[in-house]
Design a protein that fits this description.
single chain
Length: 150
């Protein structure tokens, strides 16, 4: 029995050390920002995103058709849109730096980058909230896209 206690103690110590290292390392991927951030992300979404993308993530009407100024309306972030087609890294960069960061060129969008208004952790929280609303099929697809991007 004494040997089993020693083994259990070593396993617990290794597991605890691993968790502490991960927390202190401040890794910047969505894997680090799971369900604990959903409630915060929802609140941040309502404050910073819902005015254009809708309280229920429904986007603006006719979001696939250009506006008279040539820009695109805000797309939905629910499963009816295309947000789930993008990797975590792409979604993070679009949110932090604006659409042109991904599209490139002289692309003009009404969506600003939120890097000056939100911290990286807050951006990840918003993304976790959005992803938490998707059906499993869309979540699975988006996870695959994110894995391909790593």
């Amino acid at each position: 029995m004494g040997r089993n206690i020693i083994i259990a103690t070593v396993v617990a110590l290794v597991a605890t050390t691993t968790v502490v290292i991960l927390i202190l390392s401040g890794r910047g991927t969505a894997d680090d920002h799971q369900t604990d951030d959903v409630a915060e992300g929802r609140q941040l979404y309502l404050e910073h995103c819902a005015a254009c993308h809708g309280n229920a993530l429904e986007g603006q009407p006719n979001w696939r058709d250009r506006l008279p100024n040539g820009r695109m309306p805000a797309p939905p972030h629910d499963e009816t849109g295309h947000t789930w087609h993008h990797s975590d890294e792409q979604l993070f960069r679009i949110t932090r730096d604006g659409v042109a960061a991904i599209v490139g060129g002289n692309y003009e969008s009404d969506m600003p980058g939120f890097g000056a208004a939100l911290t990286d952790d807050e951006i990840w929280a918003v993304l976790e909230y959005i992803k938490s609303t998707w059906p499993q099929r869309e979540r699975d697809y988006q996870v695959q896209r994110s894995e391909q991007d790593r």
